[in-house]
Amino acid sequence: MIKKSEYPLVDASVSNVAKAIGAAASTMLAAATSIVVGRVVDQLSSGVSYLGAPLAVALILALASAAAAVLLGEWMPACLEVRCFLDGAETCAKDILAAPQRAFARHEKGHFVNVLMNSTDIYGTISACANVRIPGAVLSLLGIVAIAALIDPLMSVLVVIYAPVFWLALRLPSRALAELQRDVLPVQDAWLGESKRIVENKRSVNADGAEGYFSARYRGRSEAFLRTVMRYRFLELLISSLPALLSCVLAAAMMGVAAWRCLTVGAGVGQVLVAYSLAQLVQAPLTAIAQRVAQVRGNLPHVERLREVAAAAAEPSGFETLAANQGGTPVARVDGTLWATPERGAGGKRLFAGEFEVHPGELVVVRGANGSGKSRLLDFLRGLSDPTDLDGEAALAPELLDAAYLTYPVPVFAGDLPYNLLGGAADPKVAEVLDLGDLPERTITDQPLNLSLGERQKLGLLRALSRPEPIVLLDEPLANLDAATSARLCTYLADLRGRRTVVAIMHSDDLDAAADAIYEVRDGSLARVK
Predict the structure, then answer these.
(1) 51 and 43 in contact (C-beta within 8 Å)?
(2) Interval 314-328: pLDDT, tens
């Protein structure tokens, strides 16, 4: 369930209230500067010769207004933007990692890249809008109306009338912009996903001579994104241009009122200047309110996406129940049919049906042809798939959900060997068995040719076997290893019997003699053959 308490838009903390008041301070100082300058003009027109003090006050107010505009009006909201962005990105990354695989598989990679990079950034922006920029603009507008009322009540009436007219003029493009944002995100996801696909598979694309195919796909995704972005940019331009056009109307009206007062009641000429200044000042908060509200509304889909990720992180995987119901001595007991697709029957893909059982301290081998479901079985045991993939019964020891796991292919990260151990430390015995060569001293890059397939396999084995968990899952542990290393590794795994539970997917009989149990997938059925 998606909760609005996740990634809140409004935080009425003392700090944010103070920032909003500070954001309004520059406008109030600018208004005060205009009033002082207007009085200077009045004094000039009346023949006063000494204006040093009023001009000094005007200068001080102008400098204070400029400083407040930079520090309080821009810098403090910008700091809040960055803080909310970074906090949101950290929370989102944790949520993505915590989400069950079932929830993660609902979208392609481009979606999550977009959420983690763009949605968190935009969340920071609209948080600053909702908590500082918009409230600060409202306070500025109220302050200007109050000042206008003190100078001439008719001017404040003009501002009060102008405000809703201004809002209505921007409402239609603002609403269209908000609706279009929902269309932008999916095509942006697809574009980012295609970009990531090209970068991740560059070597394979070149090796297969598929440059033209991927270029065409990328061009298609880019053109779809471009068409949507062009409409979005036009609406943004319309919203940003309308205020300048409308401001001329208000300025003319307020200056007309001031000029009329000069002619009828003998008001000072400086009041015309003050009227013009207030007309310009009122435009800034009005524009900020309209544009920032439109920005918040238009980007709410980003907040919804972040909340969706947070809800996915809180979503039970279902494996907790299987682990909680575990009773007796088996580490794992699976009895039923494992499916590769949500569909059942002729429309789905059945991997295998049968019984599978692992006891503490055993070395269990699983064999079968490629695509028969062996890796899917290990994912199920580790809690990385979906419990509903199984039609039948299962019970898993809680330790299985944190088991050391060698996956295939082996993930490699740019950095050194300690970094690739992901916070763990290399077991000296395992390092000796694998014969790492110069791998501990080498800088590992994300280029495929930096490590051979055998070195990648050794890195994955070192990572998994160095972990302290009592259960180890190994997906093709001998893949890409030379004969000598394979022999030493098999001896090491055989020596683990009784001390650690090992489940290994094998395509050879190297571990058969040491195995406590051997399971084989044949013709869609899983059967114990030893």
Answers:
(1) yes
(2) 888 888 888 866 666
Three-state secondary structure readout of 352-395: EEEEEEECCCCEEEEEECCCCCHHHHHHHHHCCCCHHHEEEEEE
* Identity at 428, one-letter amino acid code: P
- 453 to 187, 482, 486, 505, 507: CA distances (angstroms): 36, 11, 14, 18, 17
Q: Convert 465-503 to b/e letters by CB count within 10 Å (16 or more is b).
A: bbbeebbbbbbbbbbbbeeebbeebbebbeeeeeebbbb
Q: Are 44 and 287 in contact, with CB atoms under 8 Å apart?
A: no
Judged against a pLDDT cut of 60, whether residue 2 lies above it is answered with no
Q: What are the tens digits of pLDDT across the range 384-404? A: 888 889 999 998 998 998 999
- What single letter denotes the amino acid at residue 206? N
- Residue 165: name the closest of 34, 28, 258, 282 by CA: 282
| 8 A C-beta contact, residue 364 and residue 377 | no
Gyration radius (Cα) of the chain, Å: 34
Is the backbone peptide bond immediately before 243 cis, with ω within 30 degrees of 0? no
Distance CA(326)–CA(381), nearest Å, equals: 13
| 327 burial type by CB count under 10 A (0-12 exposed, 13-18 middle, 19+ buried) | exposed
The CA distance from 464 to 461, in Å, is 5
**CA 30 to chain CA mean position, Å:** 39
Length of the chain counted residue by residue: 530
Dihedral angle computed from the Cα positions of residues 389, 392, 397 and 402, in that order, rounded to the nearest 10 degrees:
0
C-alpha span between 283 and 246 (Å, rounded):
9
Confidence of residue 415 (pLDDT cuts 50, 70, 90): confident
Q: Which residues contact 441 (CB under 8 A, 6 or more apart)?
A: none
Q: Which of 162, 181, 274, 194 is CA-nearest to residue 231?
A: 181
Residues 6+ apart with CB under 8 A from 286: 137, 141, 162, 163, 166, 167, 243
DSSP code at position 129: I
CB 507, CB 367: distance < 8 Å = yes
- The neighbour count for residue 24, using CB atoms within 10 Å, is 24
Q: In the numeric block, which tokens belong to residue 252?
A: 């003319």
DSSP state of 415: B
DSSP three-state, residue 327: coil
pLDDT tens, 51-82? 677 778 878 888 888 888 889 988 999 999 99
CA nearest neighbour of 255 among 150, 163, 154? 154
Question: Cα 521 vs. chain centroid, distance in angstroms?
Answer: 41
User: Going by DSSP bridges, is the β-strand pair 332-339/390-396 parallel, antiparallel, or unpaired?
Assistant: antiparallel
Give the whole-angstrom CA distance, residue 65 versus residue 71: 10
Secondary structure element (H or E) that encloses residue 211, with its range: helix 211-265
Residue 209 falls in which region: left (phi positive, over 0), alpha (psi -120 to 50) or beta? left
Classify 339 as helix, strand or coil.
strand
